Amino acid sequence: ERTIQTLEDMLCAYAIVFGKGWVNHLPLVEFSYNNNYHATIKVEPFKALYGQKCHSLVCWTEVGEAQILGPELIQETTKKIVQIKQRMQVAHDRQKSYADLKCKPMKFQVGDKEMLKVSPWKGVIRFGKTGEVKP
């Protein structure tokens, strides 16, 4: 519930600022949400997932270079995020095609017997409440 409310508030703010063009800035909303501190998990979602903070490409300017401000900054950031997502999708598709080549399709019929690898459980596994005795 809290996540939905937060995202709704962020989208409303973007709709107010950018009007009808707010849809174009959805990747920036996602980027912003994933790279801000969340009190419930006590860390940014990006850091929780990858173990390190996200380093924004927009902030990598050299000393003396003119910095982009306002809507230009948002447009530049959005372009970079979209470009990164496209490159990630290309890499994902390439890895999937390699995995699909190695994957052997298996067909099973009713009544077929197959070997099942089962790892032993470690420790004691109890089902139900402990200390409860049933007749």
TrEMBL record:
A GO term for molecular function: nucleic acid binding
Key words, A-Z: Nucleotidyltransferase, RNA-directed DNA polymerase, Transferase
Domain of life according to the entry: Eukaryota
Statement: the UniProt record of this protein carries the keyword Nucleotidyltransferase: yes
InterPro entries: RNaseH_sf
Protein's name in the database: Putative reverse transcriptase domain-containing protein
Protein species of origin: Tanacetum cinerariifolium
Classification lineage: Eukaryota, Viridiplantae, Streptophyta, Embryophyta, Tracheophyta
